[in-house]
Amino acid sequence: MADLRIDGHTRVIAHLGHPTHSFKAPLIYNPWFAASGTRAVVVPLDCPAGALDALLPPLMAAPNVLGALITMPHKVGVVRLLDEVSRTARVAGACNAVKRLPDGRLVGDMFDGEGFVRGVQRKGLALAGASALVVGSGGVGSAIAASLAAAGVAQLRLFDLNDDATQALSARLREAHPALRVQVGDRDPAGLDLVVNATPLGMEPGDALPLDVNRLDARTFVGEVVMRERITAFLAAAQARGCRVQVGTDMLFEQIPAYLEFFGLPVATPERLRELARLDTPQENTP
Questions:
Q1: Residue positions annotated with a catalytic role
Q2: Cβ neighbours, 10 Å, residue 280
Q3: I want to staple 272 with a disulfide (CB 3.0 to 4.6 A). Which of 97, 109, 114, 268 is the partner?
Q4: CATH code linked to domain 113-249
Q5: Strand-pair partners of 143
Q6: How crowded is residue 71: how many other Cβ atoms within 10 Å of its Cβ?
Q7: pLDDT tens for each residue of 223-247
Q8: Cis peptide bond upstream of 48, omega within 30
């Protein structure tokens, strides 16, 4: 595999979030940049809660910074720092990609939901008319809910310990999709076609499960957004119930082609990205 050359011509994409030990994107983007000869690099930057306002604007002013990947806990808060966001980001109320236009304006888009939806559809799950539960109404959960609604699900159940966030997401979904049946405050997965953990639960050993897995039906498809482990405790419990599952990194592989297009970089297929990715390196779980 070709080495990634970093020099004075390299364009930088910052990866902003906390904690950085869970970041997988650099292990996928950078091997592709090396293989394709793209003079770009994704660099993880630890940005704890409360630090984004001080970090993002000056960072984006650097001419060789193409933009930023935004992850937890900043996907919701970053929106107010931007000059423009896409329709998907408006409905989600969150953003996971930012770039600077030639006139200096900062624009954002949201690809988490698209990546998740494309992944489950490629695994054979029909979403038109389906019922779904999304646990977590933060940035990634809001994006997945928005994309599921756009894909035609008929019933969408939302749950988050922050009820205000769930109510706000529900209102945006109802406004954009009047025919969608939205239910708030219930995380019972029984009888549903799709169940998604869109919370950070599973990032740390010993985390609680996001819902009562004993209520899962074997026919229910279960999706995960946590990427620290390929099979989280939640997915393992779902598989023990007979459920088909989607791992967290599948969402990432499916959305990266859209990210690359957003930043104006050479685009790879999900299959090529998987072939080149270095997720099995010792860096994967290094704090």
A1: 75
A2: 9
A3: 268
A4: 3.40.50.720
A5: none
A6: 23
A7: 999 988 899 999 999 999 999 999 9
A8: no
- Bridge partners (DSSP) listed for residue 42: 13
Residue 34 CA to residue 26 CA, distance in Å, equals 12
Residue 287: pLDDT over 50: no
First to last CA, the chain: 26
Region(s) of the chain under CATH 3.40.50.720: 113-249
* 231 burial via Cβ count (<10 Å: 0-12, 13-18, 19+): middle
Closest-CA residue to 193 (of 219, 230, 156)? 219
Domain 11-111+253-285: CATH architecture, name and number where available? 3-Layer(aba) Sandwich (3.40)
